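Here is one chain, start to finish.
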Amino acid sequence: MLGQLVTNSWKLTQDFNEAELILINTCGFIESAKQESIEQILEMVKYKETGKCKKLVVAGCLVVRYGTELAAELPEVDYWLGFNDIRRISELVATDPSPLNRGETTKEKAFLNEENLPRFQATLKHTAYVKIAEGCNHRCAYCAIPLIKGSFQSRSKKSIINEINSLVEAGVQEVNLIAQDITMYGQDLTPQSSLLDLLKEIVSQTQIPWIRLLYAYPAGINDQLLEFMAQESRICNYLDLPLQHINERLLKMMNRTDDPLTLKKRLQRIRELVSPIILRTTFMAGFPSESRAEFEEVLTFLNEFHFNYVGAFAYSEEEGTKAFALKPQINQKIRQRRQQRILKEQQPISARLLQGEVGHQKLVLVDKVVAAKNLTIGRTQGMAPDVDGVVVINDYLGQPGEFVNCLITGSDAYNLYGSLS
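Its structure:
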């Protein structure tokens, strides 16, 4: 959307008071994200009164899910854009303001990025996210994404390759492949394809130095994919595998396909075939009927398998999902306490694994330079942007987007420290 607007003579400003058009891209996945989106809308409404804003635009999942209700409650919003409107935002905001009044719908296919649409690089200029698919077929009991975005849709390999090549030409050094489940890639295409096929083409047809795999459903990880990761140095030895839980009863209630034994065997196999590998996972706290003993199985599991990074979130009741009607629902405070307990349990594990990096040489991608403190901040292959820690290099002022070899000299619970000497 930004790429189209900038191409059509709009200029970006960091000052909301100066903005003639304010665009809010919303999330409708969980309650906290929905609330944050609504708070942002209310916050931006004031600039129609105090600033130069003439066009207030709200787009994204919240619009698709609750458009009719929102339009009735927030007449100050001029445009409500659903998925099909993303590719023509410049055309729409050039017309007279009139809410589109989109209501809750599952008929509208999620927007699949088109490589011929202009893209504005909103992240660091040398790292980018490339969405390879939209929607999801898994139908986990707690998840509203299929209700919002529908079934899984893969982009064509040609479209993805073209986008990556254009990013490389713009100076991007790292692409992070994302989807609700990247391991399902290509199964809906004709002829069928796979994530492995896509990776082989990315490696052979692009010059991108780092390729990172995010959000990989554990059941979709097979030996062939792991063997290719192990042999291809441009693919980061990193996997984000959202497990959600490790208790067998709760996994079944969540409609997750893997049982605990299968998950543990798969994790062992990953470590056997790709060594060393950095593993990130996510757990849900407070799923309906989760007992204290079942919750503590997660803590035991953390101490057995030693993930490098762990995220945790409290279960959120989402209307339309199977879990919404399950009983009993866990008290919200208990959910939050369990969420925090997971993070607390993981902290010394992450710290101990990072301590093991001290004394080793690591290739670091420079993200930013803090000249006032005479240091450079970057990441290794084992650190995804935004969610993991960083490497702080003292007494060195690099350039964002360059690679440097760094001796790791120290660590804390989340970050590494290094030197070039």
